[in-house]
Amino acid sequence: MDIVLATTVIASLFLVIGAAEPLAARLKLPYSVILAVLGVMIGAGAIFFLRTELTDALNPVAEAILGLPIRSNVFLYVFLPTLLFQATLGMNLRRMLDDWVPILVLAVVAVVVATFSVGYALSWASALPLVACLLIGAIVSTTDPSAVVTIFRSISAPRRLARIIEGESLLNDAAAIALFGLFMGFVMLGMPDPDLYEALVRFPVLIAGGAAVGWLAARLAIWVMALFSRHELAQISISVALPYLAYIGAEQSIGASGVIAVVAAGLTLNLTGPGRLPPQAWTNLREIWDVLAHWAGALIFVLAALLIPRLLEEIRVEDFVLVGVVILAAVAARAVILFGLLPLLTALKLSPAVERPYRVAILWGGLRGAVTLALALAVTESFRVPDGIQRVVGILATGFTLFTLMVQGTTLRWVIGRLGLDRLSPIDEALSRQVVAVALQTVREDVARTTENYELSRDIVRSEAKRFGERLDQAVSLAEDSGDILDRDRVTLGLIALAGHERDTIISRVQERTISARMAEQVLFDADRLIEGARSQGRNGYNRAARRSVAYGRGFRIAVVLNGRLRLSGPLARMTADRFELLLSQRLILRDLGAFIDGRIRRIHGRRVAELLHELLSRRIEMVETALEGLRLQYPGYAEELERRFIRRTALRLEEREYIAIREDGLIGAEVYTTLMQNLHARRTAAEERPHLDIALQWTELVRQFPLFAELDDAVLKRLGRALETRYVNAGEVIIRKDSAARSVFFIASGAVELEIAGQTWRLGRGEMFGQMAILMKKARRAEVRAIAPSTLLVLDEVRFRRLLERSEALQNAVRASADKRGVDSDNLFEDTNVESPADDRTSV
User: Fold this and answer.
1) Sign of CA dihedral 380, 383, 384, 390
2) How far, in Å, CA of 402 to CA of 303, rounded?
3) CA distances from 104 to 83, 134, 149, 201, 555 (A)
4) Where exactly are the transmembrane stretches of this chain (predicted)?
5) Is the pLDDT of residue 837 over 50?
6) DSSP letter string, 108-166
7) Does the global pTM surpass 0.70?
8) What is the pLDDT of residues 589-604, one digit of tens each?
9) What does the alpha-carbon distance between residue 343 and residue 487 come to, in Å, rounded to a whole number?
10) Is the distance from CB of 103 to CB of 327 less than 8 angstroms?
C-alpha cells in the first residue's frame, strides 16, 4: 500500500472522529453508535466502488481503506490496553470498594451467566458443537456501557449508579476475554465439548498470573518514575509503556491473561501514584491518558465497523434465526442478573438498592461494541478454527453487535425518557426555582454596580432593568410557589451542597499543594461518602459518614495486631502517620466551610437550615479535634513535626505565588524566573518528605508521661513499653462486658471511657486505668466499660500487672484511691497480692 495514501486515509479517519462527536450531540444519539454507522458506511462504500464499474477514480482510495492492517492483534495489543489502562486511572477505586458486590455481579457473574446462557441456547438451536457455542457466548458477553454512562451523566443520575456501570465496564472485558481465550483453546484443539474441570483449573491461573505480572510491572514503573521526580515527560513516557509491557509480559511469558495484567497495573498505579508523583505531574499524566483513550476508543470503533460489511457478506436466512437466539439469550441472562440476583443481594444487605427504572435502563443499555467485533475477528483469522465455525462466529457476533447499536443504542434515550429518568424530582425542581431566584437577585446587584462604574446611557439601563426586573419577579413568584419543601428536605439539600463545596475546596487545596497528594485521594473519598450519605439517608447518612471518616478502620486494627504479635511496626507507623495527616487536612478544610453556609446556603434555604448546618459542622470539627488531640497526646513530638511541615509548605506556596505575580508584572525575565522556580522546587521536594514515625520510641515517651509510671527507671520503662499492647477503640465501642473473665488491665493513653456498675457510672480520662479491681478481687467483672470518644488504650496482662504492682508505690496508691472511690476496702484488696513495699529494681516487668 502506498504510504502517502495510507497516511491520508488514517488522517481522514481522525476527521471522521472529530465530526462524530458534534453530530452525536446534535442527533442526541450515543457517540459509539454514530462512529459505528460512519464506519459501516465507509466500509460498504469502499466495497461498492471496488465491485461496480460506476467509476475507477475512487478505486485506489477504496483499496487503501480495505487494505488497512485491521487485524485482531491490532485491537488486542494496541487499542485494548490503552482503553483498559485509562479506565483504571480515571476511577475512584476507594468509592468503588463500597459497591464491589454489584460491580462483581455485573462484571463477572453476569458474563459467566451470559456465556453459558447463549452457549447452551445456540447448542440447542443449531448443529454447532457446544464448545463453539460457548465461544460465541464469551464473545458477546462483554458490554460497552459508555453510551448509558454518558446519558446517565447528562441526566444527573446518581453517581453510585454511574460508578457501578463504569466498574462493570472495567472488569467485564477482562472476564469475557479470559473466557474467550479458554474456549478458543478448546476450539483450536478440535474438542467438541470442553473439559470443564480443566477449564476450572486454568481460569484461576489466567487471572492470578495476570494480576501478579501487572502488579510487579506497576511497582517497578512507579519506582523508576519516582526516581525521575523532576522530569515530568519521562514519567508520562514510562506510564505509556507500562500497560503494553504488562500485557505482552503476561501473554507471552507465562501464558496468563494480558487484560488482567493491564487492569492490575492500572489499579496499582491509581492507588500508589498520587502519593509518589508530584500533583501536577499526576494531573498531566491522567490528561494525556484521557486523550489517548479517546483516540483509541474512537479508532477501534471505526476500524471495527469497517469490517462489518465484509463479515456479513455470507449471511444466510437461517443465520437470522440464530442471531435472534443470541439476542434473546443474552438479554434474558442480563435480566436474570438485574431483576433476580441484584434485588436478592440488596435484600441481604450485600448491595446498595438500584431502583427498577435504572435497572431497566442498564438492561437496555447493554450495548456491544468494538471488543466483541475484535474477538470475532480473531476467530475468523485463525487458520486452526474450522471454516464453518469461523463464518458463524463472525456473522452472529456482528449481527448481535449491530442489533445492540442500531436498535438499543438509537432508542436508549427514548427509553430513559419513558422511564422518567430525565426529569428532576419535585424537590429538585422546587430547589432549582429557588436557586434561580437567589442568583438573579445577586446578578441584579452586580449589574447595577457595573452600570454605575461605566456610566452607561440612562435610557438603555432603564429599559434593560425593566426587562430583568420582570424576569426576577417571575422567578421570585415561582420560588414562592415552591415553599412546600419540607425542612427535612432542605437540610438534606443543604448537606449535599455543603459536602460538594467541601470536595471543591479539597481539590483547590491539593492544587495549591496545601494538602499533599498522598492524602488527596482519602480526603476526597471521605467527601464523596458525605455526599452520598446525605443523598441516600439525609442527616443520619451525613453524620454516619462523618463519624466513619475519623474512626479506626479494619486495616488499622490489623496493623495493630501485626505490631503487637509479630513486632512488624511498619504498617502501624505508616497508617498512624497517614491518620495524623488526614486529620490535619480535614481540620484545615472544615474551618473554611462556615463562610459557605452563611454566604450561599442561608440565602437559598433560610436561617433555620443554616443554623442546623453550623451545628452539624461544629460537631464534625469537634470530632476531628478530639481524634487529633488523642494522637497528639500519644505522639507529641510527631504532631509538632507535621505542623511544622504544614507551615513550611504553606510558606512555599505563598512564595511561588509571589514569583508568578512578579513575573507577570514584567519585573523579572524568564531566566531569573526559571532559576527562582528551580530553587523553590528543590525546597518543596524536601518539604514534601513526611517525617518518620518511630513507634517504639514514641511508646516509650508515652509510657513515661503516665504519672503512674513516673518513678520507674529507663530500663524498666523500656521493658514495660514492649509488654504493653495498644488497642484503638471508636466512640460507643464496648471494651469490657459485664461478667466477663478478668485477664487484663487498661491504661488510657488518649480519649475517655465510661464505667457502669449497678446503675452508677464513672468517667475516666487520659492517664487513668480500669480493669484492675476484678483482677485483684479475683472475681468476674461487674462493670461494663464503653468508650465515649475515639480512644487509645494500653493493655497489660494480669501477670505483668501484678509484677508491676509489687514494685510501684505510685501504682499501689492509685489502686487504693480507685478502690476507696468505689467503696471497696483497699486493705482487704491487697491481702492476696502480698504487696508490702516496692520491690528492688531488679524485678522484671
Assistant:
1) positive
2) 15
3) 19, 21, 17, 20, 22
4) 29-50, 100-122, 128-149, 170-191, 203-228, 240-268, 288-308, 320-341, 361-380, 392-416
5) no
6) IIHHHHHHHHHHHHHHHHSSS-HHHHHHHHHHHT---THHHHHHHHHTT--HHHHHHHH
7) no
8) 888 888 888 877 787 7
9) 32
10) no
